[in-house]
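Lecture 7 notes: from sequence to structure.
We start with the chain below.
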Amino acid sequence: MSSLLSLWPAIVAAIVAAIIPREAKTKHRVALAASAFLLIASVTWLWPEAAPASLGGRGPNPAPAAPAAADAAKPEEWPYLLDLLIGLPIAGGLFVLFLPRQMPSLLRGFTYAVFGASFVASLWLLKVPMTPGWHFQHIRPWIDSAGIRWHVATDGMSVWLIVLTTFTTPIAAFASFGSIKTRIKELCAAFLILQGAMIGAFVALDLFVFYVFWELMLVPMFLMIGIWGGAEKIKASVKFFVFTMTGSVLMLGAMLYLVWTYHSLTQQWSFDYLALSRVVLPDVQQPIVLSAQFCCWLAFSLAFFVKVPMWPLHTWLPDAHVQAPTGGSVVLAAVMLKLGTYAYLRFAMGLFPFRSALLSGNLGAFAIIGGILYGALCAWKQDDIKKLVAYSSVAHLGFVMLGLFGATPSGIQGAILQMVNHGLATGALFLLVGVIYDRRHTREVSEFGGLAKVMPVYTALFIVVTMASIGVPGTNGFIGEFMVIAGTFVSRRLNQFGGIEAVGAAAGVILAAVYMLGMVQKVFFGPLSNPKNKKLSDITPREALALAPLVVMIFVIGLFPSLLLDRMRPAVETYHGQFVKLFSEGPDAPVAARLLPKDFFPPSFMTGAPEGDLVEESKAKAAAAVDVPPGDRPKLTAAQMANLATHPPPGVPAQKAGGTR
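Predicted structure tokens for the same chain:
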């Protein structure tokens, strides 16, 4: 019996192939069946299993797990897996440029093969328990004189975003190949290089490496919009590039200042995120002040707010979405926007916890008014369906930022889950808008009406994805928004305004239902009055193949959210505990920059930090110099003396500094 149950993914795949209409091509039937098999097999693979009681599982009398047995049961982490996920698509994108342009089938087939290999490789990330700390970590020296290392790793907060990238980018490319028939070679290269750059930005733990990938991913998207976009593609692509590049330059300046400060404290150069997390820049307990920490936090945050985007830095997004081809819009909404939210969580909050926590109340109100409510009201007034979906992204990502600003475990988990949910639902919406645009070459709501009579399957799919977008229970959008609102209500960082902001977020959910259901009513129901719509064909097997994985995952996450939440919970709880400790238990705000000791952070966080800490060595020398004549004591720099004032060696009294961290 158990052997038969193990075959049920193959049985479901056979049923899917059997129910597809006979007029569909064989390759489409096989592809849909294979997609069903892979999705069901993936869920089965990810399903939690009770460990034996001897290993500390959920047996009737669970016994404590023996450390040696538990370590032996852990799957081995291949240190080059992340290198493969980054390098394979980038190398494939460069290689495809050398293939003959006259063979588009070869170009597409090679691209699919690279995407397929990347997706299968990314699933191995999920086979390893996401315990606190870094996983699949790989460190190699790169530019020793500048302290730059190739340092990549993942944890529970980034692993699902990597899988989201390898899952949605092939779908976007597949959809693009159906409507774009020119410059196929360049399009294949753009998609492949873009995927590698986005994964690199998600896993980079060296700020120089992160910045390289952050800038690299702009180029393929700039080309997608500028070459295969709509009538105003040049304007939209230039606007996209200028906005994002401006924010990136500000971040680069703050990054260099942070590295210089670290060097002044340690006499070592390093761009490593773990090393720079120890730097405490001067600050005071005032919302707006031209302190070093405030200026650096602002520079980082502006770069990320542009990418999210948040009002008033959002104006590039509607133009980019409207002018981009369907595949470009899918990648932009599903993955690229998440780099802004993820980078704020990882770098802005991680490097500047005091400033991030101090401004949380103000930023929470900003996310409500300038994100959720403003985006919803703008979407409500749009006549272009694609622009409506674009403004809905501003509103939905306002929920993500609100969860991060609240800085509660449930809020952060809900925000990360909502990143994945938005990528699936909004990516599917852009695919569905592309379907109707390919038939009518217009996206104006007034041009449609009564489409349910001639396109019933398309209508059903659109309504399902709409339900996910507005957060109906049972779909993936519900649990993410619920966790964000609940986290907002109990957040201590939002002070006494948490309840009010939770009500504002709930109002955004209502507005989402208003503008989405209003659009559905006008487009799909009512009389079929426009003669041009009476002979529209329903969704094709190729289009169904692109949409099917997204629709299935909407229900998988909606019904079984613990598949994702269980893997991110340990990392989020560790991160939250570290964030609270840095904010409330850190040293007093200094008049000069200081360096926190390594033991101030969890050991799992500091795994892989640069070795040879000269500050720790100077403390040992200072401790030894207590009984040494003054003329023979080691000479320390001014920065090291300032750091020793608040972090003295044992037995040496500290010098008290005023203020708060």
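Points to note: Residues 8-45 form one domain. The chain has a mean pLDDT of 81.
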